[in-house]
Specification:
This protein is an alpha/beta fold. The protein has one domain: NAD(P)-binding Rossmann-like Domain (Rossmann fold), CATH 3.40.50. It has seven helices and seven strands. It has a seven-stranded parallel β-sheet with strand order 3-2-1-4-5-6-7, with helices on both faces. α1 crosses α7, α3 packs parallel to α4 and α4 runs parallel beside α5. The longest helix has 29 residues. It is globular, with a radius of gyration of 17 Å. Bound molecules: NADP nicotinamide-adenine-dinucleotide phosphate (NAP). The site of NADP nicotinamide-adenine-dinucleotide phosphate has 26 residues, from α1.
């Protein structure tokens, strides 16, 4: 039986590690042609590609590349889409998953201007530019899926004592998703945001994992696969659109 995403071209930005990797592998298993983008680690890229190829449908195109996103992020977006086009053949992606989203913790009064720029550019402007660039083709094709990742507890407007810049940018993704849904929902394009709780990944150090154990029900971090299961359901659904969904075990940080 053909996978649900057979002949769909998927791009996962930040798909070589953590939550993005788990989503990328799920897309491969569902038959998508897949481009996996990563930041720095050739080892992680090769490992993700090998596992994706093991799950992929016969004949599916699976490729990937590394490109660390730096300012100006419009140029980074251009480069990533050009490299994706080289690998995947003609046409822009039908499915965009944007997992890369840098975190930073500092009290408001200690957050330097360069951190404000860095967090806003990577967590809000970069996704906005990618959506504006890709959504027109999705509308023309009358099918598209966009999935973004918020931060923990950023499904609503809240105050944060040590993550204001990161969380403000992540909260704004809800406006992007609802705007994309409003602009393109009638053309079969969906855009949703998953707001993960405290999730243990290969990037999480022992100190963070201990924090997660202290906060999360069950005494451990969520797994990337827990988050990917919801993400993949949203990508499969033609009717969930403009949703901002927490998956955090009810934890308040
Ligand atoms: N983990 C959590 O507890 C948690 C909680 C709430 C929200 N989130 C959100 O969920 C999403 C996924 O988070 P995550 O923790 O799995 O991983 P992440 O650190 O946001 O992303 C890891 C991916 O991004 C790539 N990457 C690293 N630096 C990059 C750069 N400068 N430019 C482009 N790509 C780069 C990594 O590749 P390399 O390994 O090759 O560098 C890897 O593919 C993020 O948006 C995050 O904000 C995470």
């Amino acid at each position: 039986m053909e996978g649900i995403f057979a002949r769909r071209r998927a791009l996962v930005i930040g798909g070589t590690g953590g939550i993005g990797r788990a989503v990328a592998l799920g897309l491969a298993a569902r038959g998508a042609d897949l481009t996996i983008h990563g930041g720095h680690s050739a080892e992680r890229l090769e490992s993700a590609l090998a596992e994706a190829r093991g799950k992929a449908a016969a004949g599916a195109r699976i490729g990937g590349f590394l490109f660390p996103v730096t300012a100006p992020v419009n140029k980074a977006a251009e480069t990533i889409l050009a490299r994706t086009a080289e690998l995947s053949g003609t046409g822009t992606p039908d499915i965009l998953v944007l997992a890369w989203g840098p975190f930073h913790r500092s009290p408001l009064q200690e957050t330097k201007p360069e951190k404000w720029y860095f967090l806003a550019e990577n967590n809000f402007i970069f996704p906005g530019i990618l959506i504006s660039t890709l959504i027109g083709d999705m509308i023309i094709r009358k099918w598209g899926r966009i999935l973004l990742f918020g931060g923990t507890n950023t499904e609503a407007i809240r105050g944060f004592s040590t993550t204001a810049a990161y969380s403000a940018a992540k909260t704004a993704l809800g406006v992007l998703a609802k705007s994309a849904a409003k602009s393109a929902g009638s053309a079969g394009v969906t855009c949703n945001v998953v707001c993960p709780g405290l999730t243990d990944t290969e990037y999480t150090g022992e100190k963070e994992q201990a924090y997660h154990r202290g906060k999360n029900p069950g005494g451990k971090g969520l797994s990337p696969e827990d988050i990917a299961a919801l993400a993949l359901n949203l990508l499969e659904s033609p009717v969930v659109n403009g949703a901002v969904i927490p998956l955090d075990g009810g934890v308040s940080v």
